[in-house]
Amino acid sequence: MQNKAPGILNKSSHITVIGSGFAGMAASAVLALNGQQVTVLEKNAHTGGRARTFSEAGFVFDMGPSWYWMPDVYDSFYDLFGKTTADFYDLKQLDPGFAVIFGADEVMDIPADFEKVCELFEQIEIGSASRLRKFIAEGEFKYLVGMQDMVYKPGHSVTEFFDFKLFRDALRLQLFTSFSKHVRRYFKDPRLLALIEFPVLFLGAMPKDTPALYSLMNFSGLKQGTFYPMGGFGKVADAFRTIAEKAGVNFITSQNVDRLEIESGYISRVHSAGRVTKVDAVVGSADYQHIESSLLEPAYRSYPESYWESRTFAPSCLIFYLGINKKIDGLRHHNLFFDEGFEQHATEIYKTKKWPAKPLFYVCCPSKTDPSVAPEGSENLFILMPIAIDLDDPEEIREKYYNTLINRLEKFTKTNIRDHVAYKKSYSVSDFIVDYNAYKGNAYGLANTLMQTAIFKPKLKSKKVGNLFYAGQLTVPGPGVPPSIISGRIAANEVLKFLKR
Predict the structure, then answer these.
(1) Which of 313, 264, 265 is nearest to 439 (CA)?
(2) Higher local confidence (pLDDT), 58 or 210
(3) Integer Cα distance of 290 and 460 in angstroms
(4) Which of 230, 236, 233, 227 minimizes the C-alpha distance to 94?
């Protein structure tokens, strides 16, 4: 279908996917499953995107994702290929799912059993158990409607939602209700509010600017449960690559794409690291803004720079990968440190956009569950502090926050940690830019505000280039691993429709 207008069927077309994160791998696998010839070009030496791993001094570090929520999304993808999750890794439900730390002696462990979660709420705030059941039931409805009827729609037009049942259900999804106000109708205790609102802070926007629709995340975290793939999240990325390769996808790493050559309004060739690849269609699963601004001439860009400047982005982050040569008591697998004010840190991320004065942070200690990720008698620590995008992150600032976070971690665990660091690596804004061409160093894509939900996100199909499609966290349905998987599936299906026209 080289340089042909839509309307001509080509049963086996040549498709290039830019980027090998979850969205790119999912798209490539679905396309190959449907008989297309697919090549994935990855700028880095390893596939997986933000879910890459690295090993040092006997430690195995997941570079990005660590929360395994929405297990049905993974199951659904594997089922397309006649596989199950168990074919690729041992998925373990964590108990407690995670812990929220409000002080050195105040820890809220979130049980795997939802009824025990309700009992925990009741101990903190009288009457909150029944309110939690109602709140989570609403979240479950949103999850089922969202995941079954809405989330797989490509977001081309509002007409996609004109189906009567979907329109009726949409009224119950609370798109126009503030998440913050919604939560406060159910709970008053600041500890419960922090527990409910933390997914919004880490992946979304200010709770007051986020639709109450996203209480579906609370259903997933508190009712479905929190899981861990033994061996680390890299095992999930490995599974997606394995599926894609068995379907016939060709992965080529260290292939930074330089230019998309366009003829008659369609991409004809992809130029990358000395290679020229003829294509019938392209799926851009790398950073949307980067593809537009760096790979396309201005006449072929769907959005001007002013558009991206006006968007609300989810946080970037400062990460420390630490190998500790002793065991640390008191830490759980997932640890959320809310021993400082939620509102101030959220304001510094989304409004004033400066380095936080009293940051919240997250510690993942997978060696509590998985002995394979650290030498015997050692701990593997992943410390993440959400921050605003587009901040300067020189070594002196990173080191300042390293000391701040370690001080608080030592205070909580009541043990010396800094003198037992066998390996240390930091990662922040400038690294996201270098490794992923991430716009202003964003880590999670666009924030989940009302005007950046569904049809209001950047379009999955280019407005200017006939055979260019996008996938990933800057288009539908949004940030996070499960949405990225879904995004790849949607993009692949849209490419297939295009090829059959």
Answers:
(1) 313
(2) 58
(3) 15
(4) 227
